[in-house]
Amino acid sequence: MSASDIVAILQGAVVTVTLSLVGILIGLPIGLALAVLRWADVPVVARIVAVYVSILRATPLVTLLLLLFFALPNIGIAIGPVSAAILALVMNTAAFNCEVWRAALMNFPKDQYEAAQAIGMDAPQRFRRIVLPQIVRVSLPGLVNEMSLLIKVTPVLAVVGVVDITRAAVRIGAETYEPLPPFLVAIALYAPIVFALVSLQRWIERRQLFAEAAA
Amino acid sequence: MSKFAIASCKFPSRRLLLGLIAAQLFVPLVPMLAGKAQAAGLDEIKKRGLIVATEDDFRPFEFVKDGTPTGFDNELIEDLRKYAPFEIKQQILPWTGILAGVSTGKYDVAITAAIITKERKQSLDFTSPIADATHYYVKRKDDKSISSIKDLSGKTVGVQAGSALLARLPELGAMLEKEGGKLGKVVEYTSYPEAYQDLALGRVDYVVNTIINLKALATEKPNVFEVGQPVSGKSFPAWAVAKGNTELLEFLNGFIAKEKENGRFAELQKKWFGEAFPNLPVAFEPEF
To answer: What is the distance between the alpha carbons of residues B210 and B165, in angstroms, rounded to a whole number?
Structure first.
């Protein structure tokens, strides 16, 4: 393995991190929105969300991606590899995030909500000030878990031509007929990426603990 | 959740009904999504450029070295850029999506070594062959139990999933049966590097691929691998376009004919395959 091979894998790491971040940042609020729609039991919409979540949780990401990538152009929607990859990631992770958020919402103590109502907070205020801060804390471990799964599922995006860490490693192996060294480098790169995510979670949790202790 | 649980107890058919409604919504989409895209004719290609798909791990045809695509097909694409009166847009992706992408119109042509088979000819058209790709087997150099075709009987073989090499394994099966043997277990891989690695590790006993790929492998790793004998009849790889895209096919065949004429084809074949194939047919009708 040459220095330029390492550079190629590092470029793959940039792609992996970027796609994961974009997927997480878009998928997280969409998941929350879907969960709120179900929690509030909005007529019809809540049902559609339930069906969406069931279908998406049952569809392998790679299948969804191939379908989007090859089928959308047939109905006149031009889609490139990167946008198809992001769309598939977001559709997939939003469904899983929805369930994590929903679990927290369902366990949210009703008396707090009613107390907020009693002192005259309107619905958006109740959600922003009372519900959200508490469900974020409860959901965090589950959400970070889903995020780390998302990072590690990015190699399947390679089927449409996205070159992530793993694909970059595969290419080097195909050129040198020595697949092991590039794979070792690849693994060594995934570990710090996921570790950074988990450290972020720890930091947020600690900050919340201090905030509570201060209160 | 309790709300929904009660609801579904009271109306057990509601969930089913909703499912049916959802199905009604999605079913009309299916033929729309699966519908054949119109392959772009030359006029459209002249306007928007030719979208070419190549592989990234198929040495010596196409592979990536130091971040740049290289190999036999990629050098031809460089020539094609000069030859074509329009822009060439290249997409590099794994084999899995390439032929599907061409038949659905996502890419105009797969510039890779797609072996011409009867089955593929149902949805694709092929250019003039670019090499002779008779199928051979490769074994571990230190494996003394294999020295001829009949020794392959009952041994585990590795091939690429969805490949013509897999489709033509029955030919080897017939060869073995004639000698009283039989084809052993078949292991399918998404691409060849994994198959070679498993061969080196001893998980499979031999791997079947085209002579060109195997010679490149054995040249690079002479202490690990050794190429055996042919396990198929004539087989040719070519570039693939969507079925019925005759304009583009003729254009590409014209390019290949010109490259053959000016000696560039033979030069590139010698450079990447170690030998030139001067007697390639202009068109090939597959038996399998």
So the answer is: 8
